[in-house]
Amino acid sequence: MADFTPPERHRETVTDKEKGSTQGETRAPRAAKARSESPPPGKSKAARGRPPAGWEAAGNAGPLPRQAYAALDLGTNNCRLLIARPQGQHFTVIDAFSRVVRLGEGLAQTGRLSETAMNRTINALRICAEKLKRRNVRLAWSVATEACRRAENGVEFIERVRHETGIALDIISAQDEARLAVLGCHILLEEGPGPAMIFDIGGGSTELVLIETGDGAPRILDWQSVPWGVVSLTETCGGEAETAEGRAARYAEMRRLVSESFAGFAARIEQAGEPGLRLLGTSGTVTTLASLHLDLPQYDRKAVDGLIVPADSMRAISQRLSVMSPQERRELPCIGRERSDLVIAGCAILESILDIWPADKLGVADRGIREGILRSLIASDRRAERGRASGRKARRGGRK
To answer: Domains in the chain and their CATH numbers?
Structure first.
C-alpha cells in the first residue's frame, strides 16, 4: 500500500497538448505593485501566493486579470523561475530564468548547505526577485525541495533568502513535489488503458508516481520518493575512476543503491503492470539523453518536450555514457561541462526505473514542478474569483 492517502481525482480539464503555449518570452509592461509578504526594508518585494489545502488544479477556466503568475523551484542542483499569463485553460510564459546553482553540493558528506553553495544560490535568487519586481505578478509560489528538506541549516537558509532577496520560500514535502510534477507534465503522457508511471529525477531525490488516467488530471494510485538524485548519488559514490572498467564498477554500484531504494515500491506495483506500459519522465537527465538520441547539435526544447523515445535507445545511451571519460562526455553536444559529472548518476537512476517499469517507450517532458505550480495558482485564483463574484451577486440581491 502507499504510505500516504492518495488525493481525490484532480479536477482540471485539459483539451489539448499545450506544446508551444509555454514557449518564448515577450515584453510586458512595468509591474504593478504585487501582493506580497513585506520583506525587510530596502529589499525587493516578491509576490507570494500559496494554494490552499486541496490545491490541485480545477477546470472551468474563467476570466482572470492580465496580471502574471510566477513559479520558482529551488532544487538541489537548479534554480528555475517561470512567469506566465493565463490563456484559456493554459498559460503563456512571458519570462523565465534557469541557473545551475548546486545548492546541495557537499550535502551528502556534511549534512549542511555550504556557504559557497548558499552564496551562489542567493545570487541567482536576486535575479529572480528582480524579475518578479519588474513583471506584473499577481501571485507567486516559491518552493524549495530536497536539499533544504535534508540540510541541518535548511530553515536558516530559507530565512536568509527572505531577508536578502524578499523571496519567501516554502520547503515542500516530497509528496507535494511528486504531485506538482505530475500536474505539470501529465498532459504529455500517451493515451492508453491501465496505470502509467511518471517520474522526476532531481538533484537530491527522485519521485516515482503511479497514476490512473481519465478525464482531466490523473489520480495518484501510489508514489515513492528516494533520496537519490544526480547530485546526492554522484557525491555518495565518489570520484570517477581512470579506467573504463573502474567507471563501469562505479556505475554498477550506483545501480545497486538506487535499485535497493526502489525495492519496496517495486514490490507494491508489481501487479500493476500490463501490456502497453506507459512511462513519462521529467528531468535534465531524460531531456539530455533525448537530445543525444536525436543527435542534436544543441539543446532544442521544441524538439525534445513531448518526444517519445524507444526505451532501448535510452538504455544504450546510458550504458555508453557510463564508461566514457569525463572529457569524452564534455565534448558531447547537450552535455558539456555543467552536466558531464552528474549525467552518469541520472543514467543509473533511469535504468533502475526501466527495470521496475519496463515500458517499450519513454515519454520526455521538459516541464514539471514549475508548470504544476502555475496551474495550481491559476486554478486557485479562479476559484477565489468565482467566490468573490458570487458574494457580490448575493450582496446585490440582498439590497433589492
So the answer is: 12-54+66-172 (3.30.420.40), 176-365 (3.30.420.150)
pLDDT tens for each residue of the chain, 400 residues long: 232 222 222 223 223 333 333 433 322 322 223 323 333 333 334 444 545 444 444 344 445 556 899 999 999 999 999 999 988 777 899 999 999 999 999 999 999 999 999 999 999 999 999 999 999 798 999 999 999 999 999 999 999 999 999 999 999 999 999 999 999 999 999 988 889 999 999 999 999 999 998 777 789 999 999 999 999 999 999 889 999 999 999 999 999 999 999 999 999 998 886 767 999 999 999 999 999 999 999 999 999 999 999 999 999 999 999 999 999 999 998 897 878 899 999 999 999 999 999 999 999 999 999 999 998 898 888 777 777 776 666 677 666 5
| CA–CA gap between residue 58 and residue 208 (Å, rounded) | 23
Cα-flanking dihedrals φ and ψ of residue 334, to 5°? 75, 5
Per-residue cell: 356: 521496475
Q: Cell numbers for 354, please give them.
A: 526501466
